[in-house]
Design brief:
Catalyzes the oxidation of 5,10-methylenetetrahydrofolate to 5,10-methenyltetrahydrofolate and then the hydrolysis of 5,10-methenyltetrahydrofolate to 10-formyltetrahydrofolate. Homodimer. This is Bifunctional protein FolD. The chain has 282 residues and is of the alpha/beta class. It has 2 domains: 85 residues, Rossmann fold (3-Layer(aba) Sandwich); 125 residues, NAD(P)-binding Rossmann-like Domain (Rossmann fold, 3-Layer(aba) Sandwich), CATH 3.40.50. The chain is built from 10 helices and 11 strands. The chain has a 6-stranded parallel beta sheet. Helix 1 packs parallel to helix 10, helix 6 crosses helix 7 and helix 6 crosses helix 10. The mean pLDDT is 97. The protein binds NADPH dihydro-nicotinamide-adenine-dinucleotide phosphate. NADPH dihydro-nicotinamide-adenine-dinucleotide phosphate (NDP) binds next to helix 10.
């Protein structure tokens, strides 16, 4: 059996078409959705990420504001700028690109963003709302993974889902979203002995470790849905994920490629959250 490849680019395009429609409807009502993206410092990967986010806004009818500051920006000045954006009626979502320079406390910065504009869903309040089922913004990457799983037509109800990784931005919210969808959820991490024991029982595996070959074919139940969040480089410098894609696609039922799986969905869900923020305000 060869797995069906879950095409993140295609799903992303479909969702972005809906985003563009909703953005146009909001704009017609005088409320063009707006995203502010703040970059502090010159990290080359971050420069690419923020450029892609701004371009995605422009392509889909959202207003975007890109603010770049040099690495010496003080924490106090950044917090003041965020306070201004919290009160700016043109801005519905605020995103501060991580990582920040060492002298700036990322927690302080995230907590300074108004919960109404926390489209990354990283604040303690958003995390608490997700935990308690009160709504709030879902972190973009796990939210995108849920859409990818949904697109397979495989129902999560009563299924066993294993999440590998427990970061606050990917693993933990991923597990909560799967739980909300009525899956039985196991969370594994670097201290989990015999990872394969857990993954072999899983109908759905989400790998988010940042380690190549965390999941190999012998660790996958035939027919399982495999979602690969990881972004790594192989020995030839080629982009690859956390799972052994070529071998696992002969065992799994559905699998995301890297690139072209989870990656494009993350920015798409950022647009969706920004639209939602603007709609909530209306
Ligand atoms: P973190 O480094 O914050 O977390 C990695 C997690 O994986 C930790 O919980 C760690 O366990 C666990 N882990 C590491 N090695 C193993 C192992 N061998 N077995 C089991 N668990 C392990 O990373 P992130 O969550 O931020 O990101 C994970 C990956 O996803 C990265 O490659 C990142 O680049 C990628 N990513 C991709 C995005 C996209 O848009 N496609 C967006 C965000 C992230 P422990 O807690 O015990 O240390």
């Amino acid at each position: 059996m060869t797995a069906q490849i879950i095409d993140g680019n295609q799903l992303s395009q479909q969702l972005r078409a809906d985003v563009a429609k909703r953005a146009a409807a909001l704009t017609a009502k005088g409320k063009q959705p707006g995203l502010a993206v703040i970059l502090v410092g010159e990290d080359p990967a971050s420069q690419v990420y923020v450029r892609n986010k701004v371009k995605a806004c422009e392509d889909n009818g959202l207003y975007s504001l890109l603010e770049k500051y040099d690495a010496e920006l003080s924490e106090a000045d950044l917090l003041t700028r965020i306070a201004d954006l919290n009160n700016d009626s043109k801005i519905h979502g605020i995103l501060v690109q991580m990582p920040l320079p060492k002298h700036i406390d990322p927690t302080k910065v995230i907590e300074a963003i108004s919960p109404r504009k926390d489209v990354d869903g990283y604040s303690v309040l958003s995390a608490g709302e997700l935990l308690t089922g009160l709504g709030g913004f879902r972190p973009c990457t796990p939210y995108g993974c849920m859409k990818l799983i949904e697109s397979t037509g495989v129902s999560l109800k009563g299924k066993h889902a294993v999440v590998i990784g427990r970061s606050n931005t990917v693993g933990k919210p991923m597990a909560l979203l799967l739980l909300q969808a009525n899956a039985t959820v196991t969370i594994c991490h670097s201290g989990t002995p015999d990872l394969g024991y857990h993954t072999r029982q899983a109908d759905v595996v989400v790998a988010a470790t940042g380690r190549r070959n965390t999941l190999t074919a012998d660790m996958v139940k035939p027919g399982a849905v495999v979602i690969d969040v990881g972004i790594n480089r192989d020995d030839n410098g080629k982009l690859c994920g956390d799972v052994d894609f070529h071998a696992i696609k002969e065992v799994a039922g559905h699998i995301t490629p890297v690139p072209g799986g989870v990656g494009p969905m993350t920015i798409t869900m950022l647009l969706v959250n920004t639209i939602e923020a603007a709609e909530r305000e209306l």
